[in-house]
Specification:
By secondary structure, this protein is an all-alpha fold. The protein has helices at residues 2-12, 14-36, 39-42, 47-75, 77-95, 101-115, 118-126, 135-160, 171-190, 206-218, 230-236, 240-268, 274-280, 282-302, 305-325, 329-356, 361-385, 396-433. The two termini are 27 Å apart.
Length: 454
């Protein structure tokens, strides 16, 4: 039974969720490939205007995250998530027909508004199905779709730009049109494949539903409040672990989106042609996928989220130090094999860690949303850091900034690890002198019987 139920969720839920995030990341960051293929030149954009176009995506993205997460249970993830996906696919497609810079800005705004709730929503959605100790691998399974999208994006762009001139449209336009149309089709199909909850999962029989619900109850993740209350939203903002990780989320957001948006441009600056740069961006992201999956398995197996965050942050430090310290283009390209796997491992581990250590559900939904608000606030800084504030091809000040941010990210991973370890120690003392029946109700993750995941 144990193997069967998790295997079923892994087979029927995780691939759909992974495709959601792959398409989300692909449709948000394929502008980097379009830029290398001529978007910036055709729309007569300066580097500053390109950064503004990226920033415009993040303002509504950030605003949408918390309301979206709080609405998810009421509306139903099986309705809300597919609707968001289908609509942003339409917007992605429309980017391929814009003729002006203002048209691109409008598309980027609505893309951010519709995509804003997807990542925190998917993390919250998976917590409806998995106990805490199984979350990191599953979050990494779908988040690693982001590193796969970085690889796919390069391969697809390399092929699609050869369509230049077809239908009197440039190659970069076809990147948006074809990838957007696929998103629309997948979004429409997911109305029929995404279950709302364990109790409505079509692939479970009654015995399996009871088993999963019992496991979730045992893990404290299903002891939910009877209804939504703003009190739990406020309680989430009082948790020290939420804010330690919020700082790490912000720093990782800067690193993650700097590499996601500018890797093709960085590689092109090393002396490769535009088409070659698209292909050369694939291997570091492919390695990032493999490293993230191995790390997440270790994180779940040994329940060591903090150690993984610290080590993967150090990988980023090594990568940026290599890029900064060497003038060799081979070494600078090789540095991406440290920094990209490092940040693409840190992000899903932070996500699982944040989800694991807040309860009940509204408190958890708020904690997750705060983390992603901070990540995407970091994304705003990333859109300006390379190119606008730090000129190509050296990106010296940006590289120094990213190196320092990676080191501080490791530091706050350690701070959070120590804090949670210390809290678990205090809870153990309480459990020696108090029975569960005598503990005050409604404590959520502050209960002495809620063991924080380290």
């Amino acid at each position: 039974m144990e193997k069967r139920v998790w295997r079923k969720i892994d087979m029927y839920v995780v691939p759909v969720v992974a495709m959601f995030y792959l398409l989300s990341f692909l449709d948000r960051t394929n502008v980097a490939n379009a830029r290398v293929a001529g978007l910036q030149t055709d729309l007569k954009m300066s580097n500053k205007e390109y950064s503004i176009a990226l920033t415009v995506t993040y303002v509504p993205y950030i605003v949408a995250e918390l309301p979206s997460n709080l609405m998810l249970k009421a509306v139903g993830p099986n309705l809300m998530l597919p609707t968001m996906l289908t609509l942003w696919g339409v917007v992605t497609t429309l980017q391929g027909v814009v003729k002006t810079y203002s048209g691109l800005l409008a598309c980027r705004f609505f893309l951010g508004l519709l995509e804003g709730g997807v990542f925190p929503g998917l993390v919250l959605y998976l917590s409806y199905f998995y106990p805490r100790y199984k979350m990191n691998l599953r979050v990494s399974m779908f988040f690693s779709a982001a590193s796969l999208s970085g690889a796919f994006s390069g391969i697809l762009a390399f092929g699609i730009i050869n369509m230049d001139g077809i239908g009197n449209r440039p190659g970069w336009a076809w990147i948006f049109i074809l990838e957007g149309l696929f998103t629309v089709l997948f979004g429409a199909s997911s109305y029929f494949t995404l279950p709302r909850s364990v109790d409505t999962a079509w692939f479970f029989n009654a015995e399996e539903k009871s088993y999963v619900n019992a496991k979730l109850l045992e893990d404290n993740t299903q002891k939910d409040e009877e209804r939504f209350t703003w009190k739990e939203v406020v309680e989430a903002t009082k948790l020290p672990q939420v804010w330690f990780l919020a700082i790490a989320f912000f720093l990782d957001g800067v690193v993650l989106y700097s590499l996601a948006y500018f890797s093709p441009s960085i590689i092109q600056g090393l002396g490769f042609t535009a088409a070659r740069a698209q292909l050369m961006s694939v291997p570091p992201f492919a390695v990032g996928f493999v490293v993230a999956m191995i790390s997440s398995w270790l994180s779940d197996r040994y329940r060591c989220r903090g150690i993984v965050v610290i080590v993967s942050s150090i990988f980023c430090v090594i990568g940026f130090a290599m890029f900064l310290g060497s003038k060799s283009h081979h070494v600078q390209y090789g540095s991406l094999f440290f920094s990209i796997p490092g940040t693409y491992t840190t992000a899903p581990t932070l996500s699982a860690w944040s989800s694991n250590n807040a309860a009940p559900q509204t408190r958890r939904a708020t904690a997750i949303a705060i983390g992603f608000i901070m990540t995407n606030s970091g994304g705003i800084l990333a859109t300006w850091l390379l190119g606008s504030l730090s000129p190509a091809p050296e990106y010296t000040s940006a590289t120094i900034t990213l190196l320092v941010f990676s080191a501080v990210m490791a530091l706050f991973g350690g701070v959070n690890l120590f804090y949670l370890w210390n809290q678990n120690k205090k809870k153990a003392e309480i459990r020696r002198t108090l029975t569960r029946e005598h503990e005050k109700s409604g404590l959520g993750d502050r209960s002495a019987w809620f063991i924080y995941n380290l």
